[in-house]
Amino acid sequence: MSVDNLKNALPSYAKDIKLNLGSVTGTSQLSEQQLWGTVLSTALATRSAQVIAEISAEAGDYLSAEAFEAAKAAAAIMAMNNVYYRSTHLIGDETYATLPAKLRMSVIAKPGVDKADFELWCLAVSAINGCGRCLESHEKVLRESGFSRELVQEALRIAAVVNATAATLEAEKALTTA
Asked: Where is the Carboxymuconolactone decarboxylase-like domain (predicted)?
């Protein structure tokens, strides 16, 4: 189980995705925990069983048990928050932004790992889930924590490539069963 298995499973027309998957996981400026937490949390956000299985197996080699759980928590909490905050934003009535969310999200305050790492994972998941308000919020916290724009961009690149990998493999699966 590995990123290499995913690369090998990608069809020839997705050569760019295959090369990008190798690049984002092999030449990162992020710490090992930041990288593999981002890769794992975004894999979970794709909901692709194949991508989750392959990436979680490899991520387990690089992440502590606490970091592994925190990456899962980032995907879980953002599955809720991204729907809520994206919806209140898209309604177009800014009054909703002033109302308390009344949603429990204490894991963001105490994720069990470095808070900035958790914020990075939340940002990457928010990119997959398409929540502009969450992207803005997490990017601001990361920049205030000392992350460069290049490191933020790297997390976004990881999210894009992991998502494209999942989309391509799921499409191929559907095409072969059609």
From this structure: 97-175
Catalytic residue numbers read: 131, 134
- Kindly state the greatest CA–CA separation across the chain: 49
Question: Which amino acid, one-letter code, is at 152?
Answer: V
Domain count, the chain: 1
Contact between 10 and 165 under an 8 Å Cβ cutoff? The reply is yes
Q: How far is CA 143 from the centre of its chain?
A: 18
pLDDT tens digits along 97-107: 899 998 888 89
What single letter denotes the amino acid at residue 92?
Answer: G
Domain that holds residue 104: 3-177
| Cα–Cα dist 34/50, whole Å | 22
Query: Which CATH number goes with the domain that contains 82?
Result: 1.20.1290.10
Kindly report whether the global pTM for this prediction surpasses the value 0.90: yes
Per-residue pLDDT of 22-70, as tens digits, reads 999 999 999 999 999 999 999 999 999 999 999 999 999 999 999 999 9
